[in-house]
Specification:
flat, 325 residues, eight-stranded mixed beta sheet, two-stranded antiparallel ribbon, alpha/beta, 10 strands
């Protein structure tokens, strides 16, 4: 029996496969796609390294009516097992973007193949900052009044990790996707803006949590409070004049280097453009000279040919006998 999942690690190849599945099946629609997740469970850490899509349909008017081809799933898993015997079914994925009423029944279907399946909701069009994955497991909840047990989804931490081969592949993909017309200065400013916005979101989330703890709405969690204290202690004191001056000097030096690099890049591009135009102009001149030269006619005889023809006629006339003789 596998260990109960406590966290998940999703590989980039899984994200690419899910996005490709969504674009082929449900792009520009309100539908979602569902598939199986393959990987391993190492002491509660579920490592999702592969996946494949499954034929899935559900009624838009009645969410409790759905169809999932588990025969297709069993055949696909048998073929994947021949390629990599270490990969097992660890759960299933959905493009959500939220939990739906039929997800509990789908999760129970996957219990046939793994005792503790993980449901990973992957947002193919994320609008918020952060990783586009959310992982859930089902836990049993007992009602104190009726003593009835029900299953509900519980969120577990998820992260994105890659092996060396995947990192190289992602770098090549990003290199092809990257727009070469955008300068490095613009890219760096955009990245810093996104990072600061993400930092602000996390700080607001910590502030909201501490406010709920102070109001008594949530109980104190010493582990979370300890993490927040470590973050505050590691943060630099920007009120000190020396630190502020050091940050300003370093920032100015960095921006100066970036500005000079952008200027040099622009000058080199302009220089190459001028050289290219000059070369094209010289090539056009040579082509015009070649086209303007009159070609030698094959039908009109030259002066030397006319002289040879006269000599031949005189020679032929000397050979003929005179009629008077």
């Amino acid at each position: 029996m596998s260990t109960f999942p406590t966290s998940t690690i999703v590989h980039p190849t899984v994200l690419l496969s899910v996005v490709d599945h969504y674009n082929r099946v449900a792009k520009d629609t309100n539908k979602r796609v569902v598939g199986a997740l393959l990987g391993s469970n190492n002491k509660g850490v579920v490592d999702v390294s592969n996946c494949y899509g499954l034929p899935f349909e559900e009624d838009e008017t009645n969410p409790n009516i759905w169809f999932l081809d588990h025969n297709f799933h069993e055949n696909m898993f048998a073929m994947f097992k021949k390629i990599n015997a270490r990969e097992n079914v660890v759960g299933w994925y959905s493009t959500g973007p939220k939990i739906r009423p039929a997800d509990q029944d789908i999760n129970e279907l996957f219990r046939r193949y793994t005792p503790n399946p993980v449901m990973v909701i992957i947002d193919v069009a994320p609008k918020e900052l952060g990783i586009p994955t959310k992982s859930y497991v089902t836990v049993e909840e007992i009602n104190k009044d009726t003593s009835e047990s029900t299953m509900r989804f519980q969120h577990i931490p998820s992260s994105i990790d890659a092996v060396e081969a995947e990192e190289i592949c992602i770098e090549h993909l990003l290199r092809d996707v990257k727009d070469s017309s955008i300068s490095s200065l613009t890219t760096q400013i955009t990245d810093k803006k996104i990072s600061l916005k993400h930092l602000l979101t996390n700080l607001q989330e910590m502030q909201h949590y501490l406010k709920l703890v102070c109001d008594g709405t949530l109980p104190q969690n010493h582990q979370i409070i300890g993490y927040i204290q470590d973050i505050i202690n590691l943060s630099p004191n920007l009120n000190a004049n020396e630190i502020s001056k050091s940050f300003a000097v370093q920032n100015n030096d960095t921006m100066s280097v970036i500005y000079l690099s952008s200027m040099i890049r622009s000058i080199i591009a302009l220089h190459n453009l001028i050289i290219n135009k000059t070369a094209n102009r010289e090539a056009e001149k040579k082509a015009d000279i070649i086209n303007s030269t009159p070609p030698t006619s094959a039908t009109s005889p030259s002066v030397s040919d006319k002289g040879k023809e006269k000599e031949q006629n005189a020679f032929n006339g000397a050979d003929k006998p005179s009629k008077q003789a």
